[in-house]
Amino acid sequence: NGTTGSPTDDTGAINAYLAAAGTFFANTAGATVTVSGFCYINSGNLVVPAGIHLMGAGGPVQPYAGGAAVGSGFIINPLYTVSVTTGDVLENLSILRSGLIVKPTSAQANAAVAAWTADTSVGVTMFATNRGGIVLRNLFIEGFNVGVLAQGGEYSLRTLYIDAITGVRSPGLGDNAMMEDLRIEPFYSVGLAMSTGTWQRTGPCINTAGGIEINKVFCIQHFTGLLLTGNATTFGDFNIESDTVAWPGITGQVGIRLVNGGADFIHHGILTTFTTAVSVEGTGPSHFDHIESST
């Protein structure tokens, strides 16, 4: 499966294996490829051909603090990404930025988060040529500017744990797209004092152009919770939290920001300690139901 057990470059080996599997099973229901341990992606994108089910050997992942590589998956140079397309499934995998420090100090965590903020790194990328059927299920993604970039088509994101400056970005209008059971929070900084700034993530938890159903989201310490720049989005059963301790002397945080959209249904959620709970900046009608705010 391309795994070497040491921090060398597995990009060519794993890509060649996946390409061969994709070709061999092109006329069937697809292939399941199991990853045991971690593969190091250091010289190009990890390209998953259409119809491949790529899964970790260790069963469902759990989020963990402090940059440790637990379970199985990929450690990725931030210049590259995991590229998925029509019919792919990623399941039970950790996708981690290279260079994460196990149990970082506050200074190390701040330096790491500053690097994530400054670059254009992406953990998993669905390109705009996707024609549907992508499933991301039970993944832990840590250390990128954007955790998941979903550029269009049909897809399902389920049970994702993400620590990134922006958790999920969907710039193209979704088509039968769904996100459910997402935890987007600063896992890398767990155990460090909030007051040192290590918990701050300046991007939104979810940034979408719309056309998506989003349910069961827990998000903390992002400057914006939901940034909606399109329309026709359903967003429900959420808990989005900020904290003045984590943002000392900084204001302007927004729980939900609707820009240039309409026909949205936002329901059954909690917004905590934002400067502004909801900012409606578009011209279209949106419906809010059972939103609790302590802002």
Structural overview:
The chain is mostly beta strands and 295 residues long. 9% of the residues lie in helices and 48% in strands. The chain contains 2 helices and 19 strands. The chain has a 19-stranded parallel beta sheet that branches. The longest helix has 14 residues, at 11-24. It is globular, with a radius of gyration of 19 Å. Residues 1-5 have low confidence and may be disordered.
Structural class, by secondary structure, is mainly beta
Question: Ends: how far apart?
Answer: 49 Å
Question: What share of residues are in beta strands?
Answer: over 45%
Number of helices: 2
Number of strands: 19
The shape, in one word, is: globular
Output the helix-strand order: HEEEEEEEHEEEEEEEEEEEE
How can the largest sheet be summarized?
Answer: 19 strands, parallel
Overall helicity: under 10%
Secondary structure elements and pairings:
Layout: H1 11-24, E1 31-35, E2 38-41, E3 46-47, E4 52-56, E5 73-76, E6 82-84, E7 89-97, H2 106-118, E8 122-126, E9 134-150, E10 155-170, E11 177-184, E12 201-210, E13 212-220, E14 222-231, E15 234-241, E16 254-258, E17 264-272, E18 276-280, E19 286-293
Parallel strand pairs: 1-4, 2-5, 3-6, 4-7, 5-7, 6-8, 7-9, 8-9, 9-10, 10-11, 10-12, 11-13, 12-14, 13-15, 14-16, 15-17, 16-18, 17-19
